[in-house]
Amino acid sequence: MLPSEPEFEQAYDELLSTLEDSLLFEKRPDLRKCIPVVSVPERIIQFRVVWENDAGELQVNRGYRVQFNSTLGPYKGGLRFHPTVNLSILKFLGYEQIFKNALTGLSMGGGKGGSDFDPKGKSDSEIRRFCYAFMKELSRHIGSDIDVPAGDIGVGGREVGFLFGAFKSYRNSWEGVLTGKGLTWGGSLIRPEATGYGLVYYVEQMILYASKGKESFKGKSVAISGSGNVAQYAALKVIELGGKVVSLSDSKGCLLSLEEGFTPSEIGEIADCKYNRQELYSLLSTTTFKSDKFKYIENARPWLNVGKVDVALPCATQNEVSGEEAEGLVAAGCRFIAEGSNMGSTKEAIDVFEAERLKTPEGIWYAPGKAANCGGVAVSGLEMAQNSQRTTWTSEEVDERLHGIMKNCFDTCVDTAIAYSSEKSDGLPSLVKGANIAGFVKVAEGMKALGDFW
């Protein structure tokens, strides 16, 4: 009997229920056989990581790489360093990654990895020693045409640099084996911004479609959770497009802007705070955030505290919007919610959003992470292409390609939802069904062609 894997089981059930609640298997009964095959990883690598802290004491952590599916290309997905990391979380993330990567239109399979190592409170030297110990084993299993990891929670530019240096040392090979690299050693412009920017580009298409081209982000109030890379750049892009960002958060609480919304310079101060691995509440003693313009609520998420809001962007972690919070967002007049985090909404929350969508064309419209946040991995794919060509594209070229990928992803989700929908409603098409079905069909057709099932 398999161990309990609640996060993976949630991702599996969510995908399967979507496929079953559509016309897919009526129109394509041959693809049903793919479900039990695609839901088992091709390979799981689990290993110990032994390193020394600054006191010379031996430390042991668990390392993982879930190589889930390589039908469409090399395994592709991030590395997460966080004490909550376990096999269930990595399997859920890897499973989502398969279909997310398919939606980008690029040649990438799906995988995920990481460790229960916590970089918070560690010195740069300790992080470097851990990264070298971690890569000592992982380097045996990855390569530019095999498996190309990236960063995730706890793995930023510093960690990617140490990991890439370790790989180069162990394998005596410079190759595009990691994405999110520095610009002077193989990285891509717009990669740090890509997930946040892409999320906003996707919602931009949602607003245009729902309003028949009459509305944009201009003047809209936007609640964002998280305060890391994704949340920061999503906030900056919203501000650039004329929206007002009213919240950010971290694991300790949420920070609300009570008047005109956050400014780019305030977002910059928050970015510095997070770069220095500090909590948001540490900003309350600074000149900027002491004022009555801001309110900090300890141990709370934004959703029930922001008041009237037009757009909600969960950008922190999985299951960060509950059923109760979903109902609160509906009551607050929220019309668009899109996940910058992976599986940011619980099943109960998704049920609330989908039920409201069916009631009226003006109902709340929900976009799942596998579609809305695929911009990050899309630009990782563009980084891989630049590495293969030994060239660097301009920021304008990368941003234009990202914008095009997000528009194509949105169009695919809408067209697929309409083609396979069993709904009888005048409401907007289901983006969760469109994303799940489109990603699944592309991967399943590839697996069938390769003989993985027949």
Write up this protein.
It comes from Tortispora caseinolytica NRRL Y-17796. NAD(+) binds at residues 195, 229. One of its GO terms (biological process) is glutamate biosynthetic process. The protein is α/β, with parallel strands linked by helices. Among the domains are: 39-176, Leucine Dehydrogenase, chain A, domain 1 (Rossmann fold, 3-Layer(aba) Sandwich), CATH 3.40.50; 194-372, 3-Layer(aba) Sandwich (Rossmann fold). Helices cover 44% and strands 15% of the residues. It has 15 helices and twelve strands. It has helices spanning 6-20, 24-27, 35-38, 87-104, 124-138, 157-171, 194-210, 229-240, 264-275, 323-331, 347-359, 369-372, 375-389, 395-420, 431-450; strands at 43-52, 58-69, 75-81, 110-115, 147-150, 221-224, 244-250, 253-257, 294-298, 311-313, 336-338, 365-367. The strands form two sheets. The protein has a seven-stranded mixed beta sheet, sandwiched between helices. The longest helix has 26 residues, at 395-420. It is globular and about 60 Å long.
Q: What multimeric state do the chains show?
A: single chain
Question: Can you tell me the CATH class of the domain at 194-372?
Answer: Alpha Beta
CATH fold-level topology of the domain at 194-372? Rossmann fold
For CATH, the homologous superfamily of the domain at 194-372 is named as NAD(P)-binding Rossmann-like Domain
**Main sheet strand line-up:** 9-8-7-6-10-11-12
Shape: globular
Content-based structural category: alpha/beta
Tally of individual helices:
15
Query: What is the tally of beta strands?
Result: 12
Mean pLDDT: 95
Strand portion: 15-25%
Low-confidence stretches: none
The biggest beta sheet is recorded as:
7 strands, mixed
Question: Which percent bin holds the helix content?
Answer: 40-55%
**What is the level-2 CATH architecture name of the domain at 194-372?**
3-Layer(aba) Sandwich
